[in-house]
Amino acid sequence: MGAAQGSYYVGGLIGKNSGGAAQCYSAGTVSGRQYTGGLIGSNDADYGRATGCFWDTRTWLQTPDDVGIGKTTAEMQTAKTFLDVGWDFAGETANGTEDIWWILEGKDYPRLWWEAHN
Quick one: pLDDT at residue 109? Predict the structure, then answer.
């Protein structure tokens, strides 16, 4: 959720992806000169994957990011956005019973279950 800045391979979460990312998000401001994106700066076309991942369109105002799903801040602070792609939230069982995430609906982004409720 913090800002990311640099020259090359700058992403809100991952600079250069040649592996996989699943059920993740980026909400911090991103700036760079080349290979820059709201979620991933550069994604390997053959091996890079981002499944169920989001980035806040408010923080990445340049060209649309082709990796992950861009959502508004309001959408990023709504559990349904994440539940629809299989995130496992506390208090629901449709996506599993591990209770990995929780959210203060309409006020904050998802947090890991063990992070304090502020």
Answer: 96
In this prediction, residues 105-111 reach a mean pLDDT of 95
Using the predicted structure, report yes or no on whether residue 63 has a pLDDT greater than 70: no
* pLDDT above 70 (res 61): no
* Alpha-carbon separation of residue 94 from 21, 27, 42, 115 (angstroms): 22, 26, 33, 22
Q: Which 3-state string (H, E, C) describes 74-117?
A: HHHCCHHHHHCCCCCECCCCCCCCCCCEECCCCCCCCEECCCCC
Q: Which of 39, 82, 27, 85 is nearest to 64 (CA)?
A: 39
Pairing of strands 34-37, 101-102: unpaired
Which pTM value belongs to this model? 0.86
Distances (CA, A) of 100 to 6, 12, 27, 48, 108: 31, 21, 19, 24, 16
CA dist 45 and 27 (Å) reads 24
